[in-house]
Amino acid sequence: MSQTETLILDGNAVADGIKAQLFARIAGLAEKGITPCLATILVGDDPSSATYVRMKGNACRKLGMTSIRVDLPADTTTEELVAAIRELNADKSVHGILLQHPVPHGIDERAAFEAIAIEKDVDGVTMLGFAQNAFGFADYPSCTPAAVMAILDYYQLPVQGRHAVVIGRSPILGKPVSAMLLNADATVTTCHSRTTDLPAIVKLADIVVAAVGKPNFVQGDWIKPGAVVLDAGYNPGNVGDVDYEACLANAAAITPVPAGVGPVTIATLLKHTVDAAEKFGTYRKE
Cα–Cα distances in Å, from 22 out to 14, 89, 185? Predict the structure, then answer.
């Protein structure tokens, strides 16, 4: 397939569709005195993490949601972070909790994730949330994997019976998206940067999900002609995990970076927060 025929999977269009459906739901909650509220926790002063948190806060405000930002110093201990999360768990006006990761060295990130109450785990980071996703009934699956599935659905790209190759095995991206594709009746091969003869395995894929965290890792000659390529990576300089220009030549459809999976991830986070507000909402405290 030539480059001019390749379908560019516009994440902004998918995200706008998700957010358009949220306006009426948020208005309905407002009539009951409920404002969906997402609490974000940022530990340390990493500029990229700060930018992500700010983007999520701005996205909330544009939809008429509330965003609470909790900033903690880089020398915060695991115990102090867990205590802050438990305070948010107890606050009935907070419907979703997002811990921006990675956290500074010295903090037990898994212990912090596990402190998030399952009903507020809108980013799907807890072990229980992971297990529910694997079984196919998570209320709030991990947002980036859910975004990948939303793009496939929006563009009506077939998954059933297709061979999907996922490059990456993190507990909040590679593993959960593998489970979601499997639950959608794809045949899934989960690979990683140490997989033997990785290019040959990727070349068998009808659907490629790149989630390895290495810039321009997936090369153009790895892609089978007609494959769908979803780049879930984001590296400094607005660079994904896929060599975009090289992969265009063979891909039938491909996500760009930026404006691919990223905007849909944020929209999914907002949707999960609204879902939680509808399920567990209460009147906001003045």
Answer: 13, 24, 28
